[in-house]
Every structure is written in C-alpha cells, then in structure tokens.
Write a structure and sequence with these properties.
Elements lengths: L1 H11 L3 E7 L5 E6 L8 H15 L6 E4 L5 H11 L3 E4 L12 E2 L8 E8 L3 H12 L6 E7 L4 H7 L3 E7 H10 L5 H13 L5
Parallel strand pairs: 3-4, 3-6, 6-7, 7-8
Antiparallel strand pairs: 1-2, 4-5
Length: about 200
C-alpha cells in the first residue's frame, strides 16, 4: 500500500503525464514519465530513495552510480543517507584537468550498482556501464524507478545484468485506473501501445 501511495504522489505532482510526447529514441508516446522535476519535491524524492535503497541494500554494493543526469539527485540522497560511496559518470569527458569520465574514488573489482529513473531502451544505462567496466568495476545490478516495459530491461538482462524496478508501467496504469485517475479507454490505449511499440538500442 505504501508503494501505491508513491504512484499517487508521482501523479499528483505531474510526473505521470498523459498526452503526446516524443521520446529520446524518436518514438511518439501517449504518456510520459517525467521525473526531472522531482528535485523540486524533496520529500517525494526521499521516499523514492528509501524505497530503492531497500532493494539496493540486498545486493551489498561497494559503490552506487546514477545515470546522468536524471538519476543523480536520487543517487546523491541514497549515498548521503545510507553512507555508501557514490561515483559520478560525466555526459562527456573533460578536455582539461584530469580529463576523467568517472568521478569519485574506487578500486578495481568493486561492485557498483547502477541507478536509473526510467528505462525505455536501456541505451543510457549501457552508456553509463561501459566506462565503469573499462575501469575494472563490476556491474551486476541495475535499479530503476519506472520500467516502461518496452524492451529495455529485457535487453539488459540478455547482456547478463539484473534489473530491478520499483514500478512497472503496467502496475502504474492499473493503480491509476482503480483510483479513477485514468479512464478504461486510456488504460486500454496505454496497454496496447506498450505491447505494440518495443524499443531497441
């Protein structure tokens, strides 16, 4: 019930949007999960961090790295609150100073958990994993707030990674329908869209 309350929170602050939106991959979608503005809702962000940490802690990672930029605030709260070292992956390598792609201290073969806000194709996750693995870190587990169930998690699992989500998009739709926040027509439309629009990287 506590987790369903988080869905209500996300809907009420406008993180679950109904309409026509274009995804990074170019696909036009009838709904959009926008978690960027969670930084303006610290209490909700903390609740999500706590819920995610319950899952992350079971894997006993040495480090945690958030996919830039959307998952960095969430990862920062987790690492600060639960005293676990954080790594920061840059969007692009600096051409000055240390020229590092990964910021933070680490040792080869340490286990690093990956945090993402929303998984669609999984491409952003792979772009975060690759430089970490090149440095000798071990990546096994990926934790995400929302899985859009359009193929990203399956693709990552086929590559040998474990993907754990707080919510699958179908669970979100089902809850919102039961709460009367979306119509049966919208529910059927969203379900049909997910089933007929897989996304691959």
């Amino acid at each position: 019930m506590k987790m369903f309350g988080l869905i209500d929170d996300l809907y009420d602050i406008g993180s679950i949007k109904i309409g026509s939106y274009k995804l990074k991959c170019g696909l036009i979608t009838p709904f959009y999960i926008d978690l960027r503005h969670l930084i303006s809702y610290p209490k909700t962000l903390e609740k999500l961090a706590d819920a995610l940490w319950e899952k992350i802690s079971k894997t006993s990672p040495d480090r945690v790295c958030g996919v830039p930029y959307n998952a960095i605030a969430l990862t920062s709260i987790i690492c600060f609150k639960y005293n676990i070292p954080m790594l920061l992956k840059r969007k692009e390598k600096k051409d000055y100073g240390t020229k590092k792609m990964i910021e933070g201290l680490y040792h080869p073969r340490e286990k690093c958990a990956i945090v993402e806000d929303v998984i669609v194709s999984g491409q952003s996750v792979i772009e975060t994993i690759e430089p970490l693995e090149e440095l000798g870190l071990t990546i096994q587990d990926i934790f995400v707030i929302v899985d859009r169930e359009q193929g990203g998690s399956l693709a990552l699992e086929k590559l040998g990674y474990n993907v754990t989500s707080l919510f699958k998009i179908s669970e979100i739709f089902t809850h919102l329908k039961l709460r009367g926040k979306i119509s049966s027509h919208d529910f059927d439309q969203f379900k049909r869209f997910i089933e007929t629009h897989p996304v691959h990287f």
